[in-house]
Amino acid sequence: MPEIFDEIICRSGTGSLKYDMESRGRSADVLPLWVGDMDFRAPQCILDALSERNAHGIYGYTEPYGDYYDALLGWFSRRFGWSPQRDWRVLSHGLMNAIHIAVRALTQPGDAVMITQPVYQHFTEAPLFNNRRLVCGTLIENNLRYTIDFDEFERLITENSVKLYLLCSPHNPAGRVWTRDELEKIAEICLRHGTVVVCDEIHHDFIHGDNRHTIFSSLSPEAADITVLCTSPSKTFNVAGIQLANVFIKNPTLRERFLAEKAAMGLSQAPVSAILACRAGYSGGEPWLCGLLRYLDGNFNLISDYISSGKLPGIKFTKPEATYFAWLDCRALNMEDRALRRFFEEGARVLLSDGAGFGNGGSGFMRLNAACPRTVLKDGLDRIAGALCLSSR
After folding, report:
1. What number of H helices and E strands is found in the chain?
2. What does each C-alpha distance from 87 to 62, 224, 249, 331 come to in angstroms?
3. Residue 272 sits in the same domain as residue 309
4. Distance CA 326, CA 352 (A)
């Protein structure tokens, strides 16, 4: 179904965070390859479900019911061999909303919350906005492959009495699929020190090649007991604007604290459109996703071809194990981060995500969102190539 993903759909004038940039002081001729949503229509099964409710015409308070759970749990069983109990699941208004609730529910003001950088930039906000103490470890980078420094990891937990660790799995922006051994080591250390793991698995459906994603809560009953597992259909089916997350919490004490904090924040039913989209996607969206993964592989191959042919001198790239992001190593361009941002936005007229915004280890990198029609990606790469050519004269 490549023709589905080749279609160019105008998103300007829709209030798109990604495209309607003039209201934020950016030029309309800059090509947006930054924000983490895709330029593809959602699967037809989701469009049909929403159209059916639109025809019905009533959008009252809505609760998920039996076939919602069947679709959700069937997805995890088929794709990951994981069968959580229904009562583990808590509905939340988006994945970052779930992370903020977990931080507030499971720690106290002043408690230490740890992340390992570079990592999704909003991970820094959940502790800081809630008056927690942020502790930052740094991933080890070797030839654009990132690993966890477990000596540092345990030392930081011990020295800071870390109460909660925010894990990004698969990893954004570096595109790692953590191996089972790596995840088991994280669980072992956190269990030893009584540290709760809040695991963001929003990209777990974007696994490439022979890599295999392991759901953190599936490692062992003990690991599940310290885990708040945050999942969402939003990235998988490109419905990020329909706010919903399915959070799985095995431990009843952690789950009750999470639910109490959610209630204290005034959150009850999820939007009806979110419930319908999730159920429809997990019921009938798998063929669409398989086609999308093949298409993304072609887009990553295009980026690799540009670099291997010398069209993007000074930029390195390794195909990611997961996600739809290209983590571009621009350190050989010898620009400080502000100049690097200006080069891409003002010189190449392409807007990417600034690597420095992902924290320690992100300086000199840029993140490119490759989830767009191939002709759009080619346009962006040509713009970058042209700007590099001009800068070398």
Report:
1. 13, 14
2. 18, 14, 9, 48
3. no
4. 10
Answer with the one of 221, 253, 284 that is the final residue of a domain.
284
In angstroms, the CA 391 to CA 373 distance is 28
Q: Does any domain span residue 51?
A: no
The pLDDT tens digits along the chain (393 residues) read 678 999 999 999 999 999 998 877 788 899 999 999 999 999 999 999 999 999 999 999 999 988 999 999 999 999 999 999 999 999 999 999 999 999 999 999 999 999 999 999 999 999 999 999 999 999 999 999 999 999 999 999 999 999 999 999 999 999 999 999 999 999 999 999 999 999 999 999 999 999 999 999 999 999 999 999 999 999 999 999 999 999 999 999 999 999 999 999 999 889 999 999 999 999 999 999 999 999 999 999 999 999 999 999 999 999 999 999 999 999 999 999 999 999 999 999 999 999 999 999 999 999 999 999 999 999 999 999 999 999 876
For helices 44-56 and 272-284, the axis angle rounded to 10 degrees is 140
Whole-angstrom distance, CA of residue 159 vs CA of residue 139: 18
50 belongs to a structural domain: no
Output phi, psi for 140, to 5 deg.
-90, 125
- Residue 304 backbone dihedrals phi, psi, to 5 degrees: -60, -40
Measured CA to CA, the distance from residue 271 to residue 278 in angstroms comes to 11
Distance in angstroms (rounded) separating the CA atoms of residues 343 and 197: 38
For 113, 167, 291, 309, the CA distances from 99, given in Å and listed in that order, are: 12, 11, 30, 42
Task: For residues 280 and 239, give the distance between their C-alpha atoms in angstroms, rounded to a whole number.
Answer: 12
Q: Do 194 and 133 reside in the same domain of the chain? A: yes
139 and 166 co-located in one domain: yes
* Beta bridge partners of residue 141, listed in sequence order: 146
- Same domain assignment for residues 206 and 79: yes
Residue 139 shares a structural domain with residue 19: no
pTM above 0.70, yes or no: yes
Range of the domain at 299: 2-43+286-391
